[in-house]
Amino acid sequence: MQQHWLKNIHIRLANEQSLLHFSVIGVLAGGWCALVVLLFRFLVEWPGSLWLPGGNGENFEQLPRWMHFFLPLAGAIVIGLVFQRMKTADTRVGIVHVISRLHGHHGHLPLKNALVQLLGGSFALLTGQSGGREGPSIHLGAATNSLLGQYFMFPNNSIRVLVGCGTAGAIAAAFNTPIAGVIFAMEVVMMEYTIIGFTPIILAAITATAITQLIYGNESILQIPAVTMSSLWELPYIILLGLVVGLAAGLFNRVLKIGLSQNHRSFLTRATLAGLATGLCALAAPQIMGIGYDTLNDAFSGQLAVSLLLVIVIAKLLATALSVGLGLPIGLVGPTLVIGACLGDAMGIFGASILPDYASNRNFYVMLGMGAMMGAVLNAPLAALMALLELTQNTGIIFPGMLAITIANLTNTELCRQHSAHQTILHFLKQQLRTDPLSLSLQRTSVASLMDRNIHFCKQQIDQQQTEELLTLKCNWLIVEKNNGELSLLDARKVQRELAKVIINPVEKTLDLLALTDSHIAMAELHMQATLREALDLLDERNADAIYISGFVAASPYPDSGILTRADIHRYTNTPQ
Question: What CATH superfamily is the domain 232-428?
Answer without folding.
Answer: Clc chloride channel (1.10.3080.10)
